[in-house]
UniProtKB/TrEMBL annotation:
In the N-terminal section; belongs to the zinc metallo-hydrolase group 3 family. It comes from Desulfosporosinus acidiphilus (strain DSM 22704 / JCM 16185 / SJ4). Pfam families: Flavodoxin_1 (PF00258), ODP (PF19583). This is Putative flavoprotein. Its cofactor is Fe cation. Residues 252-390 form the Flavodoxin-like domain. CDD domains: flavodiiron_proteins_MBL-fold. The keyword Methyltransferase does not apply. One of its GO terms (molecular function) is FMN binding. InterPro entries: Flavodoxin/NO_synth, Flavodoxin_CS, Flavoprotein-like_sf, Metallo-B-lactamas, NADH_oxidoreductase_modular, ODP_dom, RibonucZ/Hydroxyglut_hydro, Rubredoxin-O_OxRdtase.
Amino acid sequence: MKAIEVKHGIYWVGALNPDLRIFDVIMETKSGTTYNSYLVRGENKTALFEVVKDGFENELIERISSVIDPEAIDYIIFDHTEPDHSGSIQNVLLKMPKAQVLGSQAAITFLSQILNTDFNKRIVKHGEELDLGGKTLRFLSTPFLHWPDTMMTYLPEDKILFSCDAFGSHFCNQELFNDLVGDFSEEFKFYYDAIIYPFSNYALEAASKIKDLEIDMICPSHGPILRQDPWSYINSYVDWSTREMEEGSKSVIVIYTSNYGYTARLAKEIAVGLADGGVKVEVMDILEHSKADLRKKIDLADGLLIGSPTFNRDAIPPIWELLAEVSAIINKGKPAAAFGSYGWSGEAVKYMEQRLQQLQFKITQPGLRVNFVPNADNLEEARNFGREFASVVANKT
């Protein structure tokens, strides 16, 4: 295995994992992934950008060895320390005994817990530079994109941005460069939605820090190297991270599932009450929409009402499948409440409230529970439930 030259003195030395189908237990990777690591050789010093997932270190060392003796590496830069970036660090350090490990304060703290031993380390700060001799590494703090330790590194002489997880994709192709690998737009967007979107505000902050840089190439931690039209990928992040809500409007999403139509009746009457309260309303049957669409609607709404009948003393499975994917980061403090019909027990509403609280939603009113078929009084109660919730949302600053 040989290194692939990215630009003069800069090499891709990472690892390919074409057979990976699930990343971090929960994320589908139908096109596999890459663990990108980069070697930068200056006139005086040499730096390695991150290592690879545990088990792939032999591939990394073999590629490095095609360019330089690994023992000659002076620095290992960690823009991020998630184990797919750092898992092999213990074995790699044995091959690079003089290397000093550089990262943000959070990164060094995390690596200390990963290694559980002392090591040669240095904390770098935003704007700090490292001169390798004809190649300068400028560190840019971009926390929570998507971990608190994250930073990017800019190499001005070559106009390269080492972007960490940002602008990456789980897409494995040995051709490596975006102008050679074919269409990976689906994987690029899916990666954003699954990993970056919950941190979209931080993505915008990061974009503001790089907007004035001359960037000819983006080297992310996963997927193709972006040397053709790199700014199109940055602009996509800005577009996707900018929430386009109507000026001055407040919205509530009502999501429900219904076995026999009783909870559906409640949902429709709750929507009437919400509209009476002056908020925008969208009512969605959970079985008629993808979880990705529902999650996005929840993220963009100002309030969430969720409904399920009780089945075997619980809410029904589609509710839990959706709530397993809802972001506790984006929705922290957002008003929410639960409703549903029941036959002989009625626990669903209570359990949905508990899960919403775990996700950091704010339960603003007691849940609405109706035994079997809603009667006229129950339907009026549902409308009032909607009006009360609309008042909370409308007055939330």
